[in-house]
Write a structure and sequence with these properties.
alpha+beta; 2,3-Dihydroxybiphenyl 1,2-Dioxygenase, domain 1; binds zinc ion; 16 strands; 5 helices
Length: about 325
């Protein structure tokens, strides 16, 4: 069952600044430029690897005048990207050069991790993964392919306690508890290096979150297809008493949503059809794509959306 994390969606600040950070500082590919299907006056920007494969995708709803969020219990704390071990020095240098707010590397569960933030305070980290240099890295020349991100390792969740959410991860998504370090319990999906780690940091009665710029809106887990998703929905109800939303067509995947016991919004997204369903694979993200119901309003939507500040990739 399942193959780990499909994508993480966060709330960003101004779209041009968000686009600049993820494409020009981190060197990710903008794989889809669309709107929030529930709020078509707002962009929905998807960043990922070359194809936007599940497990590599970080997406944003950029709000031009968003107030900063404040981390609290019942929220995703950090999204962690994998890089080759030998790339960590490159990234430390780049963060200094680009003025990225970052921490000194630290050890977590035996791995070297460097935390940093985007301009809106979104909490991110790089984890050094031995052998990741053998995996292909996408590059448009901004970041040399050898140093490029290799998808997500996973996320950490800030919760009152680990148990009830851990039960969802293990029973519905196939994770296994693999260890504890201080207040953090690690869950891994065996054999799944990309998107296969969820850390639960249990902190008891901490402040409630204030959702805003830098807050993660939801974490999506993968289902191979509609049948696997339906099976997960059934088990959530039977084993955990949790009802999901009805299935929503997100054009690039089909999704259901639910609040997990620790109150974080989880999504189950199908792997199919993927981002090349409405534009060629070599032109992903280059033009505004709208779902059919918004096409009649395209002119009005385009006028209302801010400029992304695109420019040709460096040669
Ligand atoms: Zn989503």
């Amino acid at each position: 069952m399942s193959n780990g994390i499909h994508h993480v969606t966060a709330i960003g600040g101004p779209a041009a600044r968000n686009h600049d950070f993820y494409t020009r500082v981190l060197g990710m590919r903008l794989v889809k430029t669309t709107v929030n299907f529930d709020d078509p006056g707002t962009y929905h920007l998807y960043y990922g690897d070359e194809a936007g494969r599940p497990g590599t995708i970080l997406t944003f709803f950029p709000w031009e005048h968003v107030a900063a969020g404040r981390l609290g219990v019942g929220e995703t704390q950090e999204t962690v990207f994998r890089v080759p071990e030998a790339a960590m020095g490159f990234w430390a240098h780049r963060f200094i050069e680009k003025g990225v707010d970052h921490q000194a590397p630290e050890k977590r569960f035996g791995e070297t991790v460097c935390s940093f933030k985007d301009p809106d305070g979104t909490r991110l980290a790089l984890v050094a993964v031995p052998g990741a240099e053998a995996e292909p890295g996408w590059s448009d020349g901004t970041i040399p392919a050898e140093h490029a991100l290799r998808g997500m390792q996973g996320v950490s969740l800030l919760l009152e306690e680990a148990g009830a959410t851990g039960a969802i991860l293990t029973d519905i998504f196939g994770f296994r508890e693999s260890g504890k370090e201080d207040s953090t319990t690690r869950y891994v999906l065996p054999g799944t290096p990309v998107g296969g780690v969820v850390d639960i940091r249990a902190v008891g009665g901490f402040l409630k979150p204030r959702v805003g710029g830098g807050s993660v809106h939801h974490v999506a887990f993968r289902a191979r297809d509609d049948a696997e998703q339906a099976e997960m929905v059934k088990r959530l109800k039977e084993n955990h008493g949790i009802e999901t939303t009805e299935q929503k067509d997100r054009n690039y995947f089909r999704s259901v949503y639910f609040r997990e016991p620790g109150h974080i919004l989880f999504e189950i997204a199908t792997d199919a059809p993927g981002f090349s369903v409405d534009e060629p694979a070599d032109g992903l993200g280059t033009s505004l794509k709208l779902p059919a119901q918004f096409e009649p309003m395209r002119e009005r939507i385009e006028r209302a959306l801010p400029d992304l500040g695109r420019e040709p990739a460096p040669q």
